[in-house]
Design brief:
Belongs to the heat shock protein 70 family. With about 500 residues, this protein is α+β, with helices and mostly antiparallel strands. It contains 10 helices and 28 strands. The protein binds adenosine-5'-triphosphate and magnesium ion.
Length: about 500
């Protein structure tokens, strides 16, 4: 074992997984107590004040829904009051509030946690299990994120690592990692589609593999589309049915909701293997006269398909867009790879088979491929490695600046290769102006208001002159991880200016 091994971590919305490449070159998944290779991405505090992470947290979530955080990856980099956050509030029992920068913070066990802190708890648990298993301290990791994460969301994962002194040496995209798990060491020459439908997010990437070169042609996704939405479709149906039968709205009862949520997910999973499943919960609530009431229903696979058809449609629309972006047609695709637990749903596989005219390949394990790919990449970053991998990735959404009137001036279009740098010349607009500020956004809309703000960059130390008299050369740098930095200089003197970034969230 390396003295300072780098592990690969798939920090999932529902499940997390870690792996490492051993000295003999074999990839090893890190097992948890009980022999599982994934742990639930759940953090809780019980009534005695104990912190629980993973299975321990999941085991008690029905009884302690208010202090059990799950699905928090969906909130990373989000603004309090945004649609996404409002939607989440309706389905989770834990309390959210606005933080200092209008980011989301969570109340758990009477304490307030930032999302970085929650991610750090889960990363910390993974690190602890890995350290015990490998019998060596772990200080470094490659961590994966959805390809469709923006700059701010990526930054947040790096910050989470810092909180526990875990150096996130590299952020890589989940579908790209899955492609590594599939292709490293096979001497392939193929174009593959990675279709990753997990618990919280959907990603699709088209990747050209030429032996050890993995070139992402295009990527797309939706960080708010995943297994949780399939569960919610069942939950809504159950609530509606119950309200119609009894006039009682169970949505206001967190313990009842947690029981329904639990069974909804199990029902969904069972329906991947069976045509019909009962949905019974005894004593879910009581009438005003104190009579116990039960949920007694039945779900068929057909019903589930009807309730979730629109979700599968959305994934296929994105697949179509990504194909167009790559300039390829379905015929050019050699393999379609399924990643993420939700791809076990038969209709997802059927629809993909129709779309591509051939069945998806089972070339990778849907739950483990991302962690394995992360471990392979981690291994390639070790000092004394003989594994060479070249990753050529892209940014998922355009990055640019705000123009007058709120229009979005694109500096890097979506699918621009990374790393990447661009320069732009600006001039002062007032006499004796010493500072220049610009607001930077990421997204695919023409108006900045509909995109995510990455920050307000201020360049100071401009020499005093009349309006339009000085130029400022601004450099936009997107690193290999898809994270932006900016700097500015005076092209006349070559002098670098001071740059400060303020991340106020609008
Ligand atoms: N047999 C199955 N049929 C349908 N859905 C399933 C099945 N098995 C697991 N799932 C669903 O897969 C989802 C979890 O997938 P996965 O572990 O890949 O997600 P994740 O990596 O945690 O999330 P993400 O990648 O979105 O951050 C859950 O919603 C789960 O209900
Ligand atoms: Mg995943």
């Amino acid at each position: 074992m390396h003295k300072e091994p780098i592990i690969g971590i798939d920090l999932g919305t529902t499940n997390s997984c870690a792996a490492i490449v051993e000295d003999n070159g074999n990839v090893k998944l890190i097992p948890y107590k009980g022999g599982e290779y994934t742990i639930p991405s759940i953090f809780a505090i019980d009534d005695k004040g104990n912190e629980l992470i993973g299975y321990e947290a999941k085991r008690q979530w029905q009884l302690n829904p208010r202090n059990t955080v799950y699905g928090s990856k969906r909130l990373v980099g989000r603004t309090f009051g945004s649609d996404v956050v409002d939607t989440m509030k309706k389905v989770v029992a834990y309390n959210m509030r606005p933080g200092k920068k209008n980011e989301v913070t969570l109340d758990v066990g009477k304490k307030e946690f930032t999302l970085q802190e929650v991610s750090a708890k889960i990363l910390g648990k993974i690190r602890e299990v890995a350290s015990n298993y490998l019998k060596t301290p772990i200080k470094r990791a490659v961590v994966t994120v959805p390809a469709y994460f923006n700059d701010r969301q990526r930054q947040s994962v790096k910050d989470a690592g810092k909180l526990i002194d875990l150096e996130v040496v590299r952020i890589i995209n989940e579908p790209t990692a899955a492609a590594l798990a599939y292709g490293v060491g096979k001497g392939l020459k193929e174009k593959v589609v990675i279709y990753d439908l997990g618990g919280g997010t959907f990603d699709v990437s088209i990747i050209e593999i030429r032996d050890r070169v993995f070139e992402v042609k295009s990527t797309g996704g939706d960080v708010f589309l995943g297994g949780i939405d399939f569960d919610n479709a069942i939950i809504h149906h159950v609530l509606k049915d119950f309200a119609a039968k009894t006039g009682i709205d169970l949505a206001t009862d967190p313990v009842a909701m947690q029981r329904i949520k639990d069974l909804a997910e199990r029902t969904k999973i069972d329906l991947s293997a069976r045509d019909e499943v009962p949905f019974n919960i005894p004593f879910i609530t009581m009438t005003s006269q104190g009579q116990p009431l039960n949920i007694e229903m039945k779900f068929t696979r057909k019903m589930l398909e009807q309730l979730t058809n629109h979700l599968v449609d959305r994934t296929l629309q994105m697949v179509a867009r990504v194909l167009v972006d790559s300039g390829l047609s379905t015929k050019d695709v050699d393999e379609v790879m399924l990643v993420g637990g939700q791809t076990r749903m038969p209709i997802v596989q059927d629809r993909l088979t129709k779309f591509f005219g051939k069945p998806p390949s089972k070339g990778v394990h849907p739950d483990e491929a991302v962690a394995i790919g992360a471990a392979l990449y981690a291994h390639s970053l070790q000092d004394d490695t003989n594994l060479r991998i070249q990753l050529l990735d892209v940014i998922p959404m355009a990055i640019g600046l705000e123009k007058a009137g709120g229009a979005f001036h694109v500096v890097f279009p979506r699918n621009a290769p990374i790393p990447n740098a661009k320069q732009l010349l600006a001039t002062t607009s007032m006499d004796n102006q010493t500072e220049l500020a610009m607001r930077i956004f990421q997204g695919d809309h023409e108006m900045v208001a509909r995109n995510d703000m990455l920050g307000e960059f201020t360049f100071s130390g401009i020499q005093q002159a009349r309006a339009g008299g000085v130029q400022v050369e601004i450099t936009f740098d997107v690193n290999v991880e898809g994270i932006l930095s900016m700097r500015a200089r005076d092209p006349a003197t070559g002098r670098e200016m001071n740059t400060t970034v303020r991340v106020t969230q609008s």
